[in-house]
What does this fold into?
Amino acid sequence: MALGAALLALVAAACGSDRKLTAEEFVDEVNAEGVELRLGKPLISEDEEKEVYAVELESLAELPGSAHGHTGGSLTVHEDSGEAEDAIGACEDSADLVCYRAANIVVVLEPGGIEAQQLGVAIERLAE
It folds into this structure.
């Protein structure tokens, strides 16, 4: 979990630009970095202004004893990077979620799996 928190801090710092992405643009860009992230159906949100989608990271390998072949979570499109920064701060307070931010996008994933770490590396590359 410490590795995830450290990577989160790096990614959040690296992606602090005023760039604004759509959900589809974000998914296309991280997938171009070798991640297999699938954008799912829109989810219901308390804030009708925000777009929230289910996402799924495809498993890199079948591991013995693994219950499922994917890591799931959500992707939220915020109005700007400031809103996304606030959301990532709230997510960091949760001990059992993996959270990433790129510009105005926040991805929250189930814990565990190298797939989530791969997504973090892809987001870091996008910031370069």
User: Anything to note?
Assistant: The first helix runs from residue 2 to 14. Helices lie at 2-14, 23-32, 81-92, 114-127. The CA atoms of residues 48 and 78 lie 11 Å apart.
